[in-house]
Design goal:
Helix content: 55-70%
Number of helices: 8
Order of helices and strands: HHHHHHHH
Largest sheet: none
Distance between the termini: 71 Å
Structural class: mainly alpha
Number of strands: 0
């Protein structure tokens, strides 16, 4: 009977520990991203100034709406706060953002959250782009391509 009781106690303690660690992770991410259930931007993008002026310079007013929609789609796919979308420059590549999120192998991050696949599906659904079209392009080139396609 004593062994059964300690086994139950250990299981309860482990469950409480998992719940507390999950709550701590959610709190940490929401503190960094300023929004609940959003992942903070990688440090490189978070620490640089807003790139909104670069987007204005690179794209005219006719492309700015499409660029804004593209940046929101990127933030949705990576679970970033959409308010931080202008931390990305027109010269940034999607694979560079991905590599910043998964810069090196870590034991607890063996697999990603399928951000690239999610983004590819969103781009093809919203803007009729194939995955071969955007794989090596910058965000500014993709925004211009969206304008040409529509």
């Amino acid at each position: 009977m004593f062994d059964d009781l300690t086994g139950s106690m250990i299981l309860i303690l482990l469950t409480v520990l998992v719940v507390l660690l999950t709550a701590a992770k959610i709190s940490w991410d929401s503190w960094h991203s300023k929004r609940l259930f959003c992942v903070p931007l990688p440090r490189f993008y978070r620490d640089r100034p807003s790139q909104q002026a670069a987007w204005r310079k690179a794209c005219g007013e006719d492309v700015r709406e499409k660029a804004d929609a593209l940046l929101k789609t990127l933030c949705e796919a990576f679970s970033f706060n959409p308010d931080d979308r202008y931390q990305f420059a027109p010269t940034d590549r999607i694979m560079d953002v991905y590599r910043a999120c998964y810069s090196r192998w870590r034991f607890w991050k063996i697999a990603d959250a399928m951000e690239i696949e999610s983004l590819m599906m969103d781009l093809s659904r919203r803007f009729q782009l194939d995955d071969a079209e955007w794989s090596d392009l910058t965000l500014g080139e993709i925004a211009a391509l969206i304008r040409v396609c529509e």
